[in-house]
Amino acid sequence: QVQLVESGGGSVQAGGSLKLSCTASGLTFDDYAMGWFRQAPGKEREGVSCITWRGGTTYYADSVKGRFTISQDNAKNTVYLQMNSLKPEDTAMYYCAAAPRASWYWSLHFSASSYNNWGQGTQVTVSS
Predict the structure, then answer these.
(1) What is the Cβ-side half-sphere exposure of residue 42, based on CA atoms within 13 angstroms?
(2) Which of these, 18, 19, 36, 50, is most buried using a 10 Å CB contact count?
């Protein structure tokens, strides 16, 4: 059974940094792409960043390019999202998700339907 557990959220001032972690159990990164999504109150869930099996390819939403970095540690089965230069508009619940390689479509890397396992989320709040 796949389980994803996020951590690292919190409250920071604009310009600050946070590093989110997602520890996975029941899967191997060889067979999954891992994504970070976020959802702010009253808004739809949006893809923030994702990384394919063994870190082969990374994607970033335009709104976070140059500020966020996704990485993974295969030995720890953990995916990270380093968030720098945070802005108030980054405030949201952040979710980790896993997408099976077997059903992956490259054009749908930020489609929530590509991911069949989700964590419970970690809250990020950025104040101005």
Answers:
(1) 1
(2) 36
CA pair distance 70, 58, nearest whole angstrom:
7
Quick check: 55 pLDDT over 80? no
Residue 104 amino acid letter = W
Count CA within 13 A, CB hemisphere, residue 127.
Answer: 4
Distance CA(46)–CA(44), nearest Å, equals 6
% of the chain exceeding 70 in pLDDT:
100
Q: From start to end of 2-121, where are the E strands?
A: 3-7, 10-13, 18-25, 32-39, 46-51, 58-60, 68-73, 78-83, 92-100, 117-118
Contacts of 106 (CB under 8 A, 6+ apart): none
**C-alpha span between 26 and 97 (Å, rounded):** 13
Neighbours of 44 (CB within 10 A): 8
